[in-house]
Design goal:
Number of strands: 2
Strand content: under 5%
Largest sheet: 2 strands, antiparallel
Structural class: mainly alpha
Order of helices and strands: EEHHHHHHHHH
Radius of gyration: 23 Å
Shape: flat
Helix content: 55-70%
Amino acid sequence: MDTQLIEPQSPRLAGTDGHRLPVIGHLEELRKRLWICAGVILVASMGSLTFAGTLVDWLKRPAGSLLPRLAFFSPPEAFVAYLKVAVTAGLVLSLPIVLHELWAFIRPGLTRRERGAGLAFVWWGSALFAAGGAFAYWVLLPVSLTFLLEFGGGQLEPVISISRYLSFTTMVILACGVVFQWPLAVFLLAKLGVIRPQTLRRKWRHAVVGMVVVGAILTPTTDVATLFLMIVPMLALYEVSIWLAQLATPRRNRNG
């Protein structure tokens, strides 16, 4: 009997066409998706640069009359700040396409049930991010900036560089956008059977402690009012998440 040497096969993963791809092919697919995302973000950022001044004025509004003008302390600082605003706007505008490319990359490796659950990530992820950003802009930022800019009373005058101010405001907006993804993440995890609504209900005390910690990290000030404004929507999102998990969990798995 002839002895045949069988070469070990390299791990293979699913490609976008449904066939099995070697790891090198999978990495090539990832590289293609990343290039698409980078190209879309670049185009969106270049387009946003044309109205970066309007975006800066828009980001100044939460401070109101407390900060009439921003300063810059080096020749390139203003240009770099406008460039950062344009890139941030490009990322936000490109979010639906980036999520679509991410989903297109992981979709072939999922089951039919998982594919149906993950599709919501693309559409609802963008909507929830926008809701979080809106909450930060119209609620959290005005309260935080008012507290910070009035802290010195009549003894101090705020002279803030444009780069520091824009970094502060965009960080708060992006952080709230990420926090508002929580209900969608819970829904998908419940759909996949990773978590159950009764577990979320039992662990609510631990969740509250976690929210306080996360809120303290994300809250830009140390005052109780701002921290309260951050925690209240997180509590509401947790309750919504339990309800969504109840809908996503198959009826036979809701108890136990």
